[in-house]
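Entry type: protein chain
Record version: 2
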Amino acid sequence: MAGGRLPGPAAPGADVPVHVGLRTTDMDEAREFCRKLYYGPLQIEPVGDPGGFRFSADVVLLGPITLGEVMYGTDIRITIGALETAYHVLVPLNGMVRSQHRGAVVLADPTRAVVYRPTGAIELEWPGSCRLLSVKVERAALERELDAALDHRLVSPLPLGATFDLVDGPGRTWAALVRLLLHELCGPDGLASQPRMAARWRDMVVSGLALTVEHPYGEEPAGLQGPHRPRTVKRALDAMHTEPWRPYTIHDLAAVAGVGVRVLQESFRQHVGMPPLTYLRRLRLDGVHAELSRSDPGQASVSEIAYRWGFTHLGRFAGAYRVRFGVTPSQTLRDRA
């Protein structure tokens, strides 16, 4: 392994890129590498000559995105449980992969990417000659991007198309951006490795994906429905998304929005579907869940992460977490072991 160790816990919004590389002929080592960096419920089985197994990967973790260039050297089959916490895109650089997800079969190659939503198991048939870009974007990050940019109420998970074009239009530009960023971050002392620049690149990857994915809503990106949100609601949402860990009260948010408490609550009921503080709690829970899902159990603790996201009463936090995700926070963290 080269390029650095897996990152420990970081403050919300951290933008320090971490490069991790691996070259190995050991199937178990490659499997563990992919589980740590991408998803725990992942299985890799050779269907070609096991003697030809030559795993090669360079992966960069940058806040809510994980970028990698991966190749296996022999034909393999990958199965993954529901992603839950992330959207994912595969961009073959050469060769072809056969993907099955949510009943749709996609043959992805250098002309067409495959897109995964955070629901439903995935099956991949990946030839040994195929090298591809693997891009993971945390669910909350992509949904926040659409929410903040377009002032509309979102359906979660977003009903994204299963594929997009890589030859023309925004798909070609987005894939080139991802590949350039990965190349820069894997090299020594690149400009993109500076935290301020890395944050801008990260935002371009997330916002570019939001504008690239196919969707059933005409000229608007996927998942949008409901009326346009008033400026007062937008101000409160912007404040919560910018600093979700701040101890906001309903009076604080009303002051940010420039209206009275009752007006703000009624506006949220109409345009968001829940009270402001309920939305804030959900935003924080999603942030904790995403961070627990990518943290090393040996280096992170549930209480530290919960406090960073603004939860000061651990008992109430644990109960709300279990209601939302169906498991305890510690179970989510242990699943990364």
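Comment: Residues 1-13, 215-227 have pLDDT under 50 and may be disordered.
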